[in-house]
Amino acid sequence: MLETNGGKAPGPMTLKLYSQPGSHPCATVEAGLALKEIDYERVDLLPLSQVLIGRLRYGGATVPGMRLDGERIVGSRRIMRRLDLLVAEPALLPAAGDPLLEPVLEAERWGDEVFQGVPRRIIDVAFLRRPAAMESYAGDAKLPLPRALLRPGLPLTARMMASWNKARDESARADLDALPGQLDRIDSWISDGLLGGDQPNAADLQIGSSIRLLMSIADVRPLIEGRPAARLTRYFPPMVGEVESGALPGEWLGPAASA
Length: 259
Prior knowledge:
Elements: E1 15-19, H1 24-35, E2 41-44, H2 50-57, E3 65-68, E4 71-74, H3 76-86, H4 101-115, H5 117-129, H6 147-150, H7 154-164, H8 169-191, H9 202-214, H10 254-258
Parallel strand pairs: 1-2
Antiparallel strand pairs: 1-3, 3-4
């Protein structure tokens, strides 16, 4: 096991991040790695392929997964804790004894266990209507198959992803109905100084990655633009990929989206 390091990344070591194009929890981890200036190799997986090969490669069936020499770690929160052990500064959590520590941990937990599923279900339902949009999220990913071969299978991939994530019209519409209240909660945390500082904490990155993915859905973007929550996207590079407007029924979006 590597010990805590107070400066930049210790070396030499081998760190591999197993990721998927467009994955917001993977973006959370990549932002943490960039903040701490830790070198890593990203291994891009095809959608749902982690179910078959993840347990062999890094010990889990979801992304992100990480291999650090012989150590295997699954899940964005566990990986973020490990990054703080690798490189102590800048810290992703307030120090022990800081009154903000528990609120930041709770906001991070909410961002992972509650809010993270919202953009996943909404975008899966959007992909069912616009499967070709999936390709735009690949960006610079080095996928194991040529994109020309993957393109004809995008409608089937969209259906499989929606099934895996339990994304249906009813769930997406319920998520959109709940979204304004969730954004109010995030805006309140920003107002209280828990989120949105000059240097991001783990909760900023956990929640901000979900906001960033939501804003890549053109129909949803007007629900977020102009809110304090939208500023959490500044901790990330510009989003690659977009679902163009009209993918989701207008009646799902409420007056704010059409204003």
